Amino acid sequence: MADIGIAHTDNSSNNIQAYMKNIAEVLDKLEDIQNKIGPLEFTNVEPGLRGSLLKLFQACCPLARNKTDDQLWEEHKRIRSLLLDEHIPKSSHIKNILSQRDRQESMEALFEWAAKKGAEISKVKFDLLDSNYFLVAKENIEPNSPFTTIPKKLMILADDFLKHETFNKLISKDPVLAAMPTVLLSYGLLMEFYSGHESEYWPYLESLPETYQNSCYYDIDEMLLLKGTSSFRDALYKWKGVVRQYAYFHLKIIEHSNSDQTELRELISHLNLHDRFSYEDYRWAAATVMSRSLSLQTTAGYSYSLSLIPILDLCNHSET
């Protein structure tokens, strides 16, 4: 795929529809598997972190989309209580990093980095309104004419993590990551952030928001306000899905730590996943993908790759 010139960005609703279709298809498959094997039961769960993660994963596994709103709410409260378990990490490496940076400076560094890497961004600039950064035009732009061009080498593509020189040791053979591009991009993004300045995307990563205004970050009172609306069940499903993914990956990290593969153990040690990996950090990565990712058509013409595109993800989307 060559550099991509962007003429307009009114496809946000299509991206959301594609995302929800992907989620629905995966849920259908998982529900079918669960019906065949029966409910997960962990008896005599061991104490400590692994035991707490197993309980959390078990609580998130029942799909049962035919549950009533009240039943889903009781399940939601139980999962939240399990997240408060003393063994579940509460720290956030990402928050510690992003809360200390000057975001204005990080945005300036982002644009400088993108320009040096070949992005054509002379027609746009960033601006700030109500603590949110967004993209604005510096000149009149004709309808349907490109206003920026972003090289592929600046994009973070979900598919690229399957063949990543470093991360493929953690990713390539995982069935969940292979089946869900949104999860693959979230996990890969988190590994890139944990790489710090070693990541080729660090100027972009350091410019991202510290938190997001989507269901991943709703507290229990905000979630309750949705009850009785068409968004209630969707928000609960998305929130539970992120918690389930976190528990699954943390359990996999513990498993890999005891692997007989030296390279895998060394990678986990190098990224300091034992001390860093947490629900707060994974939630941030998942929320970033939910809020800022785009589906790009590949050169094959019929296949799409989920991606994060620096600069372009500052565009506001509107149906008006």
UniProtKB/TrEMBL annotation:
<dbReference type="InterPro" id="IPR046341">
    <property type="entry name" value="SET_dom_sf"/>
</dbReference>
<dbReference type="GO" id="GO:0016279">
    <property type="term" value="F:protein-lysine N-methyltransferase activity"/>
</dbReference>
<dbReference type="InterPro" id="IPR025785">
    <property type="entry name" value="SETD3"/>
</dbReference>
<dbReference type="InterPro" id="IPR050600">
    <property type="entry name" value="SETD3_SETD6_MTase"/>
</dbReference>
<protein>
    <recommendedName>
        <fullName>protein-histidine N-methyltransferase</fullName>
        <ecNumber>2.1.1.85</ecNumber>
    </recommendedName>
</protein>
<keyword id="KW-0808">Transferase</keyword>
<dbReference type="GO" id="GO:0018064">
    <property type="term" value="F:protein-L-histidine N-tele-methyltransferase activity"/>
</dbReference>
<keyword id="KW-0949">S-adenosyl-L-methionine</keyword>
<comment type="similarity">
    <text>Belongs to the class V-like SAM-binding methyltransferase superfamily. SETD3 actin-histidine methyltransferase family.</text>
</comment>
<dbReference type="GO" id="GO:0032259">
    <property type="term" value="P:methylation"/>
</dbReference>
<keyword id="KW-0489">Methyltransferase</keyword>
